[in-house]
Each structure stands twice: as C-alpha cells, then as structure tokens.
User: What shape does this take?
Amino acid sequence: QVQLAESGGGLVQAGASLRLSCVASGRTFSPYAMGWFRQAPEKEREFVAGISSGGSSTYYADSVKGRFTISRDNVKNTMYLQMNSLKPEDTAVYYCAAANVRPRRWSVDSMDYWGKGTLVTVSS
Assistant: This one.
C-alpha cells in the first residue's frame, strides 16, 4: 500500500501562486496514475488534475485549465501541482490521490489511495 503526504498549502492573495507537493512512500511510485482533488467547505470533493504513471498524459478540470500544471518526478516519488493566478474560489483542502489503474473518468471513486490533504486559502 502506498502512503501519500501533501505539503505546500497556505494563505495567499488572489493572483498569487503556490506549488503543492505530494510525496509517496511504502511502495514504488511509478506504476500509479496520480491526481489532485479538492474539497471546499460544504462542497463535495472534486477532481482538479490527473497525470498518467509515466507523466506523458495530463488531465485538468475546466475550472483550472490554463492556470494549474500537474507534474511528477518518479525518481523522487513526488507529484506537484503548480497553481498560478489563484482565485478565492480555489480555496479548499487539496488532496493527493493514487490509482492502480489510470481512470477512464477521473473521480473520487476511481482513486485507491489518499493523502490527508493540505489547506489552500486564497483571499480577495
């Protein structure tokens, strides 16, 4: 079983940038498709971005396309989410997740392992 740990969250102003990291341990990182999800207060957890096991394919929610970039370093067992031009509506707890099989549709139910999350707060 793989363990996931997120970091990099914080409080920023609108328009700023943040980079989230997710470090995997326990098992080899490279076979897993990986994703970022987020959950705002009183809302359901939603897909943000996904990346294939080798990193050649990436997927984004429409709400973050063009502003967020997902990447991974399989040597360092780490996945990243570069977030630019942050908006107040990006405020949420961001979760790292891993899937044994690359999802046909990126959703909470398609992921097998989860981190505990890191809070991102964007002030206006």
